[in-house]
Design a protein that fits this description.
The complex is a heterodimer. Chain A contains 18 helices and eight strands. By secondary structure, chain A is mainly α. Chain A folds into two domains: 255 residues, no CATH class; 147 residues, no CATH class. In chain B, 36% of the residues lie in helices and 29% in strands. By secondary structure, chain B is α/β, with parallel strands linked by helices.
Chain lengths: 413, 290
């Protein structure tokens, strides 16, 4: 079997087209993932603008000032300080729309490093869809409960809300509340920009999946197209070990290439931003996330998810390759399946259509662990990341069984 | 050892490629003759279990080849009519790959691959990539891969296509020396390829077996029926052509030499000549067309 796998790998790696596709994709991934670091902007307290690695260092220092445990007391102090600054007209300017906001001096000296933190606080206390801090300016602190208790209430509110007449079932509500209750509070705050910037581009790894599928589209279909099937299928192991060797080689190839892509993608971001923040909770990037994960754990989880998506797509590609006579047709179907979700909008976490869309490769390859998307089978509730893993493993197994059967029963033409 | 083909039929939508073909094959060299589209390739593919018959059965030593599966393919060697290679593989790599698929151990495969590369005269090109090979070289490599496992059943579809006359002779000798206690089926529409090496000849037409026997048996039917004559009048040539089965027309400056198959003397000065397989093949096919 080892010899057969070796020859199958040789077939894949000796094709010039494959080498070109892998190399082009590697360059593309490296460029895309390093872009966020190169274009990163930050201003210091004097308002001086920095770019790239310098800007990252400036921001790192700024975040250090507010790093630490986000106790309720600290959060109240932050809001009080914000309101105090906002109540002084000297600190404000009126923009062209007639709205008041902080002047650049306050922005640079105070708000720059706090904006993410304050936006998250605003999401808990006032508006969970907030992208700014407006509501905090006039928030009555005496009426507010403990920050983490309010966060819990917000999650509950979201769970009780109706979306186009659709709601979470009681089992789903219980599932998400229990998950949320497992999050360790109070949260630690710190610099996590390496992770957040990695995640802002992470789904681009789909390009890697496409590249791998391009290379593997000809595993079986290429044999039909070249006419080598006529020889292979008449050999002793042509319909048995030969097929298994093709599958194993395809997975070795896919794993190797994707690991290189992952290393370059993650490396490009972490080389610029550093690996700081791995031990911080993912709630820093989305305060209402019910997942009890640190950024490092979420990265590991995402890596597992992307490998399963890859393996599922490799399985599907091999099946299509065994079924269709032309690698190009395999590729067209593959790309359509992978890229279709780009053109379709997910409107809510409900409905079969939306739930399927969540599982399509482009959406599934990365989870931000913020949405409460669940799949209910009887009394069992499965969250989106786990459902993604189950779906793609299932898809891989079924596709491989079918691929093996189809190829070994193939009739030459 | 016996390969029994029983009423084997292959039907495509509205075309019957092989029609209730039956034969019992014992060790020996079988020449499968037939024009293009006669069903030779389809028959061979069904014997190799890469095309499913519509009906009928193939049994190897009394057992259905479908059920034998790997055990049947272990004794099989096949050279398809047209097939592809891996352009970036060397000749040696290709043989080693096919050897691995045939379940031959690495040590044995190395010996066998080297031996066969020498036999098919590709020894000097063993490390050369197949994409640099000519058609004839590829065909020789194809022959080598078919013989890697020293198969008990060797199926060769148009094995001499692309080979030059010297290579053809070498190929014939190779098959003759190899065929001891083996079933070798080789298809061709070039009669001379099998004239010297086939123990039995099977003639196919439109999916049917129309003739079968040793070359001597088949030629016996033509004894006294093959004529050669020289004709000086072109009108006479045209007249003879419309009446008789003309095997060969050889035009010279002021006369034409004809080879004719006929029960009676077709022309006044025509003389009887020894029949050969080409006469038989052409006579049979032309007769049916007329």
């Amino acid at each position: 079997m080892g010899t057969l796998v070796k020859f199958e790998l040789k077939k894949l790696l000796s094709k010039k087209m494959n080498i070109i596709v892998i190399a082009v994709c590697l360059i593309l991934i490296t460029l895309l993932f390093s872009m966020s670091g190169k274009d990163f902007l930050a201003t210091d307290k004097s308002g001086k603008l920095y770019k790239g690695k310098e800007a990252i260092s400036v921001r790192k220092e700024q975040i250090k000032e507010i790093s630490g445990t986000l106790t309720n007391k600290k959060i109240i102090e932050e809001i009080e300080k914000l309101q105090e600054l906002h109540n002084d007209p000297k600190n404000l300017i009126t923009n062209s729309d007639g709205e008041t906001d902080f002047n650049p001096k306050i922005y640079n000296e105070y708000l720059n490093n706090r904006l993410n933190l304050l936006t998250n606080i605003n999401r808990v206390y006032a508006n969970y869809n907030a992208s700014y801090i407006t509501e905090l300016f006039n928030l009555n602190l005496k009426e507010q409960k403990d920050f983490y208790e309010t966060r819990g209430q917000r999650i509950e509110e979201k769970l009780n809300q109706s979306y186009d007449g659709k709601t979470y079932s009681n089992q789903e509500k219980e599932y998400w509340l229990e998950k949320s209750n497992n999050t360790k509070t109070p949260f630690e705050y710190g610099f996590y920009y390496g992770y957040s910037n990695l995640y802002s581009t992470y789904e681009m790894l789909i390009i890697g999946v496409i590249a791998i599928c391009i290379c593997l589209a000809s595993v079986f279909a290429g044999e039909y197209q070249n006419g080598t099937d006529k020889i292979l299928l008449t050999t002793k192991y042509g319909k048995s070990k030969g097929v298994t060797a093709k599958i194993i080689a395809s997975y070795i190839f896919a794993t190797l290439v994707f690991t290189i892509y992952l290393m370059f993608a993650i490396g490009s971001v972490f080389l610029m931003f550093g690996t700081d923040g791995g031990n911080l909770p993912i709630q820093l990037s989305n305060i209402l996330s019910p997942y009890a994960l640190t950024f490092f754990q979420s990265l590991l989880y995402n890596i597992v998810i992307s490998y399963t998506v890859l393996f599922g797509m490799v399985g599907l590609t091999l099946f299509l390759s065994s079924k269709l006579k032309n690698p190009m047709t395999v590729l067209v179907i593959d790309i359509a399946i992978i890229m279709l979700p780009v053109f379709l909008t997910i409107k809510s976490a409900f409905g079969i259509f939306n739930k399927i869309l969540f599982l399509m490769p482009y959406n599934a390859i990365y989870s931000n662990f913020s949405q409460m998307v669940s799949y209910k089978f009887g009394s069992i509730v499965i969250d989106l990341p786990m459902m993604t893993i189950i779906t793609y493993i299932f898809m891989m197994v079924i596709a491989l069984i079918c691929a093996k059967k189809t190829y070994s029963k193939h009739q030459v033409e | 050892m016996e390969l029994a083909i029983d009423r084997l039929t292959k039907q495509y939508k509205n075309k019957i490629a092989v029609d209730r073909f039956s034969i019992n094959l014992k060790p020996g060299v079988y020449g499968l003759l037939g024009s293009n589209g006669a069903g030779k390739t389809t028959l061979m593919r069904m014997i190799c279990d890469i095309q499913k018959p519509t009906s009928g059965q193939i049994k190897y030593n009394g057992k259905d080849i479908k059920q034998l599966g790997e055990n049947y393919r272990t004794v099989l060697g096949y050279l398809p009519q047209d097939f592809g290679y891996y352009p970036d593989f060397t000749a040696y790599d290709f043989l080693m790959y096919i050897a691995a698929l045939k379940g031959i151990s690495k040590e044995k495969a190395e010996i066998r691959a080297n031996e066969l590369l020498q036999i098919v005269n590709l020894d000097n090109e063993r490390k050369q990539k197949i994409k640099t090979f000519s058609g004839g070289m590829k065909q020789r490599l194809g022959i080598a891969q078919a013989m890697l496992n020293n198969p008990k059943i060797l199926i060769l579809d148009e094995p001499t296509a692309g080979l030059d006359p010297k290579e053809r002779v070498k190929f014939r000798n190779l098959i003759s020396s190899f065929s001891q206690d083996k079933i070798v089926i080789l298809s061709t529409h070039i009669v001379s390829d099998i004239e010297f090496i086939a123990d039995r000849i099977i003639v196919m037409k439109k999916g049917n077996k129309i003739l079968e026997g040793t070359p001597e048996e088949l030629l016996k039917s033509l004894n006294g029926k093959v004529w050669k004559c020289t004709v000086y009048d072109k009108k006479e040539v045209a007249k003879l052509n419309s009446i008789y089965c003309i095997i060969n027309i050889h035009q010279e400056n002021n006369y034409t030499e004809l080879r004719i198959v006929s029960d009676k003397q077709p022309y006044l000065h025509a003389v009887n000549v020894e029949p050969n397989l080409e006469d038989l093949y052409l006579a049979y096919f032309q007769e049916n067309e007329k």
